[in-house]
Specification:
It contains 20 helices and eight strands. The chain has a two-stranded antiparallel ribbon. A two-stranded antiparallel sheet has the order 2-3. The protein is mainly alpha-helical.
């Protein structure tokens, strides 16, 4: 059964380091990093924890200090935050309102270049993590005991996951399988795709059976779901579709005999999602977060603090950053444009000092039906976790420009609030784990694969199954199940979970005029952009430091180097 394993052992001193930077440790701030090239010390268990900690932490001194990556903004350069920014900020789901921040206009408008710091942050983070994994794998290469074999399989899975992000974001990777002083070589396209699938195929037998891993460690279902994800995008990565295998591995996850769809959507994004049985049954692999042991400015701190502002009810944090809001296009996936619950234009919102507490805000909001529960009821969909009430200021759906936090609806999907009403461990840093893989992805993967294999009725059944679990009051007819309906359903289910760009590209909607959204291409009504933006450019600094990495892309196939 899944236990709270990793959160308990995160206090171990993690003393592995690599030449790219210092090591992170969790809950032990007095341990200095050790260079593996000069030290004979190797604590296998601590080093193994480090491999998972790489997903959620950025350094070895609380939220900031002694970072993994020298010369990088520690708060900005964590694994999940860098992935999230690349996958969400340029899309139809959300916008970072402080447009004067570094690279934010370029990400909002899809107009970055090889000098982008945010491109560099994700590239360096992925490379650093893989280097850590290579070091660990080399250290235990000859061990044959059961736990070492299992640890090796899990770290190979994590490395494959990182290479999959390289493939998705850049179309290529600086590739290495061992820890040494040699510069990485370039591997991309089908070669990298084949390596990822081969790695996952070879390591799966030694991983835990579905649902038997301690909570926070990867099992066979996580392996199968990553394979399904890569197969679903095969046409993007290799120019050859493979929906049959996407369906096959999604089937394996769904029929694994352990995981179940949660019938209360919000539970998966609350502070006790590592203790609530319903949430844990759908979450296949989380990034572990804890307000005391894993404090950082990425992860769920970013997702919760970034989507709150002072004065909002039920904050779940004392530190609202006032940064991330919904784009109109996301809201319109749940509501007709003229049916979004809003405070009437002619109604003046009281000042924040006029509200004594959350209950007072709720009472005022209720008269206009703009609380989150009102949003959910109006949408007929438990996933419509928006807020358009008076707390934090009056919001608008028709801004002439992106000027601040009120330039769109607030997203309150991520919460540092427990479902049982108990206190969280910290009022600023969340306890909320981040579901990196969950069962709903298998259902939507199988639905899309069946749809593209002309088995529309089978796709329809999976969509209906998922929507029924999400409390949807309306089901699509078979004729309503179109390609764009599928794309919208991916968003309704997974908004603000760090995958939207990939889905848009797979549907040929990210750069083209096939689908436009607010501020795409830098204009309010949206416009198409060049196809070169379907992949991120290799950072200029990395091109300059490694002659093994291709310098140029050729058009119209930017994944192929000349």
């Amino acid at each position: 059964m899944k236990a709270n394993y990793l959160k308990h052992i995160f206090s171990a001193a993690l003393v592995v380091a690599v030449s790219l930077g210092n090591v992170s440790c969790i809950n032990d701030l007095d341990i200095s990093s050790i260079d593996p090239q000069s030290s004979s010390s190797f604590d296998q268990d601590a080093a193994f924890v480090k491999q998972y900690a790489l997903l959620g932490l950025t350094g070895q001194k609380g939220p900031a200090g002694t970072p993994d990556l020298d010369g990088q903004d520690e708060g900005e350069s964590g694994f999940y935050r860098t992935i999230f920014n690349c996958q969400e900020l340029p899309t139809d789901e959300c916008v970072w309102v402080w447009q004067d921040n570094v690279d934010i206009p370029q990400f909002t408008n899809i107009a970055w270049n090889s000098s982008s710091q945010r491109t560099e942050w994700v590239y360096v983070r992925l490379g650093y993590d893989i280097t850590q994994m290579n070091f660990f794998l080399d250290q235990i290469a000859d061990k044959t005991d059961e736990e070492s074999v299992r640890q090796r399989a899990e770290v190979r899975f994590l490395r494959a996951l990182h290479y999959a992000y390289f493939l998705d974001l850049f179309g290529k990777a600086p590739f290495k399988e061992h820890f040494d002083n040699e510069l990485p070589v370039e591997k991309g396209g089908k070669d990298l795709y084949d390596f990822i699938q081969k790695e996952l195929d070879e390591c799966v037998a030694d991983m835990y059976e579905p649902g038997q891993a301690p909570f926070g460690r990867a099992d066979k279902a996580a392996n199968w779901l990553l394979r399904a994800r890569v197969y679903l995008n095969a046409a993007v990565y290799t120019d050859t579709a493979d929906y049959e295998n996407a369906k096959l591995y999604a089937d394996k996850v769904i029929n694994s005999g352990y995981y179940e769809l949660c019938d209360d959507y919000k539970l998966m994004f609350m502070a006790d999602n590592d203790q609530n049985e319903k949430a844990m049954k759908e979450i296949i692999l989380p990034i572990r977060q804890d307000g005391m042991k894993t404090r950082n400015y990425g992860g769920s701190t970013y997702l919760i603090c970034g989507t709150r502002t002072g004065g909002m009810p039920h904050m779940g944090t004392t530190n609202g950053w006032s940064c991330l809001i919904a784009r109109n296009a996301l809201v319109y996936k749940f509501f007709d444009e003229d049916k979004v619950p809003m405070i009437p234009e002619n109604v003046e919102v009281p000042g924040q000092s006029d509200f004594a507490n959350d209950e007072a805000i709720d009472s005022w909001d209720a008269q206009y039906g703009v609380r989150t529960q009102d949003m959910i009821e109006a949408a007929g969909d438990d996933r419509a976790m928006f807020y358009s009430g008076a707390g934090g200021g009056k919001r608008t759906m028709d801004p002439k420009s992106i000027t601040g936090f009120q330039s769109g609806l607030s997203i309150v999907k991520w919460q540092n609030i427990r479902s049982d009403g108990a206190s969280t461990s910290h009022t600023e840093y969340p306890d909320t784990d981040i579901p990196l893989f969950r069962l709903a992805e298998a259902y939507l993967t199988r639905a899309e694969a069946n749809f593209r294999l002309n088995q529309k009725s089978l796709a329809w059944e999976d969509i209906k199954t998922l929507r029924a679990k999400r409390g949807c009051t309306k089901q699509p007819t078979l004729n309503e199940l179109t390609e764009m309906y599928l794309l919208d359903e991916w968003s309704r289910e997974f908004y603000l979970e760090g995958r939207r760009r990939s889905d848009l590209i797979r549907f040929d909607c990210f750069t083209t005029d096939k689908y436009l959204w607010d501020w795409k291409g830098g204009v309010k009504e949206g416009k198409s952009v060049s196809d070169i933006y379907n992949v991120y450019p290799i950072p200029a600094t990395d091109l300059n430091n490694n002659n093994n990495i291709c310098l140029l892309y050729t058009s119209p196939s930017p994944r192929d180097c000349s």
